[in-house]
Sequence to fold (315 residues):
Amino acid sequence: MANRLIKLLGIRYPLLQGGMAWISDAGLAAAVSEAGGAGIISTGGRTADYTRSEIRRCRELTNKPFGVNVMLMAPNKEDIFAVICEEKPAFVTLGAGNPVPYFERLHAAGIKVLPVVPNVKLAQRVEKAGADAIVVEGMEAGGHIGVLTTMALMEQVIPAVSLPVVMAGGFADGRGLAAALVMGASGVQIGTRFLVASECPVHANVKQKLIEAIDTDTIVTGGTIGAAVRGIKNKFSEEFVAMEHARGLSRDELLARATGTNKLAAVEGDVENGMVQAGQSLMPLRKVEPVADIIAAIMQEARDSLAAAATIEIC
Fold:
């Protein structure tokens, strides 16, 4: 299997691992890259020193390409960018802000740039500004989301740009990868499926919560205040949505209640009072298993699905 994304990043499979705050560390990223995908280290909530340390640790664990994700809302983003330009990972994904001002600096350091975008207008804007590829994320994803579904984005963004498109949001198996490739995408980004990888450092309580979850178990918090985040239904998320609709608290008060809840679940393991961020495709998450096994299964499913699609006749 070869396409533009594979050639661009120097990877074996058209599969990126999502940059999940407090979760996507060097161990997980290296495991994904070693298995043929493109691992990503998340800097969300982290320091510049942590970023440098994890990039260097990842290089000790793998000689394969990997990337770093930067949340552009982070107050210390300039320090993090300085470290990234010095350490030179293969690529960077950028979200939650305007990525264009950072393109020139990253390219000068020899780093590929893959902004995360939620619509056609922004996809075309970053293409014109010189992005190497784009990650287009639908509302089925875990964490911060936009308003369009992955299918709607595939139908509208892919024909509107000429650079490689990586689709994200709701992908968890090889059938989804095959569908995206048939639609014209160059690959997919998967986050939630890797939460149950044995190499993933997320708390064991989160892994068990996800394994027990069914397809209808996600909920969107913050949708009424323009800060939509998808996660698992639990005490925190359901009470938060109830507070939103009660209209008794201001936007700032609601945001203050949500602050720190991602770390509370992911790191401390409180899966009732913390926000367990996860996407909608939960049924494939049935057991804890190595990253290599997850990727092998995804790729075999993709091959089987593409082979089956080739036999379909349209009269």
